[in-house]
Amino acid sequence: MTPADRIGHQVNRIIQLAGLSQQEISERYFSNFHKWLPIISPRLFRETVTAYDRGLGHPPLDVSVLLLAMCLVTFQPATDSSLTPIAPQGLYGTAKMVFAEAQSIICASSRLLQTGLLIAAYEYANGRPEAAHITMGTCTRIGYVDGLQDSDLAPTDLKARQPSSSVELERFNLWWGVIILERFVLCEVKGSQQRPATEYPSPGALLPTDLDIDEENSHYRLNIQRAGLCMPDERMSSNGNFGRQAEAGFLLDQVLAVRRLPQGDRSRISEFQRLDEHLQGFLTILMSTDTAQIGRDCSGIAPAVRALFLIHQEILQYPPETVDLQWLRYSQSVLGTVANVVVDVARHHKEQIACQNAHADLLPLSCSYTLHLAMKYIQGCMEISGSTERSKDLDYLAELDHEFSNRWNPGSHHERA
Q1: Domain residues for 54?
Q2: CA distance linking residue 400 with residue 3, whole number of Å
Q3: In Å, what is the CA distance from 296 to each residue of 92, 210, 237, 270, 283?
Q4: Under 8 Å between Cβ of 374 and 400
Q5: In a domain, 127, yes or no
Q6: Tens digit of each residue's pLDDT (9 = 90 or more) over 208-262
Q7: CA distance linking residue 296 with residue 303, whole number of Å
Q8: Cα–Cα–Cα angle for 132, 136, 142, nearest 5°?
Q9: pLDDT for 193-209, tens place per residue?
Q10: What's the DSSP call for residue 322?
Q11: Which CDD domains match (predicted)?
Q12: Number of domain units in the chain
């Protein structure tokens, strides 16, 4: 038995023990998780799995490992665990080991990179940003070895041509996935001097698409636009979920870069002011439409909110005598406004989930981190004011955090840094 056959058999056995099928995993994945991180072409995946379902033996090694990672991010602890002997932590550990074994055999491939990104995203949502950071290091190196950054489709190449096939489009989105998720993870890793291993695309770069199943039915309906990433405008409405994440990620990347500057650097505050203006303009555009829909409109809101928290928390850490008092007050005000945005979105999301109009899988992967930041801010304000009455806003935030934690980190509702 070849290593590919052995691992393929092992993956099939795990999926059976989890009480799932390849079809159910695929349906869960593309209906939920895929909306936040569209790095797998539904068409290509369906074609690959269908071919091997017809009796052609086990799929290639990297496809088997990818199936296991998709099982990991679609496994429902609240329902699946009660029906099977599989536990989330055991499934995660197995996925990590199989991923490492597969990498020792085939080194690098697009499917292997997709597997690594799903594992890193799981670790990130699970409240383990340091583990996700380490996994992302492996992912970036797989991407470099696989040549994703060197092709004429690379997002960092302003002269890049538009992808002309499902394979090219998938690889294009895949490298964007590495770039974006790396920034999200870095926000939660302790220490502000960590540098991303990837270069963020410049203004004018091609944006990623959502890799929707319907859009893939016709090549001419693929809507990749050349959008100015430096200052978002009304064109964002046609960029899709992942395109909006890319827009917000560009601003977040700049915030992380300014954050790495020494506190005594005179340009630091002025750069934070510039980015604050851009981020608030970005949020104004996104929130000027109807109430944010879970799994869609928060794709750009979540990273923009996280970036604003980073900016104004950094400013409030300056010694009072080194910063204009008016700017310190402004930072406090912005944090209050951002916390209110998080409360409003949390209230709406909780209502949608309660009415079964949405699923916890559609919440942003950064959800719990943002909720804890808002809760910490509100609790701090209550302590300063001496209030002893329980805040309804805190209840909204805690209830949504409970929903998210039950999905991604059952039994562990610890406070994140």
Answers
A1: 1-189
A2: 43
A3: 27, 11, 11, 33, 14
A4: no
A5: yes
A6: 889 986 654 332 222 333 344 444 444 444 568 898 899 899 999 999 999 999 9
A7: 13
A8: 150
A9: 899 999 998 887 888 88
A10: G
A11: fungal_TF_MHR (cd12148)
A12: 1
